[in-house]
Amino acid sequence: MKEIYERHDEREWKLGFERFKRKWERIYPDIIRSWERDLDKLMVYLKYPYPLRRFIYTTNALERFIKEVKRRVKVIEVFPSEGSVDKIVYLVVEEMNEKYRSRRLKNFERIIEELRGERRARYGSGEIKIITNEKEFYTQKS
């Protein structure tokens, strides 16, 4: 599968998928059918700059989140209500958001202009630069 996800364009991706399909279709037919049905969705990340792709197609952040919720819930034997579980999930989300807020993707400064160009191409050039106490960001005019 890694061979598929490391492809640079749609044509190469589909060729990699065909090799994968030939090898595994007899053993995992349901998975292959699922992939075939959703090929367009599975290849969406190819539309983004190459250095950003691995952050899009990886599930590391989601896996880390689930692991952290399990770790927190494991030490509590009984929950008084469903709201108690919701509160733990909420607190884990808040904590992880705080950690990720200050985190920068490797080489992101190199591709930010390319992403802005893609956004302008898709939505027009009506963007607004907003500067807050902590940082600056761009958003689209309605």
From TrEMBL:
Tell me if Magnesium is a UniProt keyword of this record.
no
Top-level lineage group:
Bacteria
Q: Recorded GO terms, molecular function?
A: DNA binding; transposase activity
Q: Give GO BP annotations, semicolon-separated.
A: DNA transposition
Q: Which UniProt keywords apply?
A: DNA recombination, DNA-binding, Transposable element, Transposition
Family under the similarity heading = Belongs to the transposase mutator family.
Protein purpose:
Required for the transposition of the insertion element.
**What protein am I looking at?**
Mutator family transposase
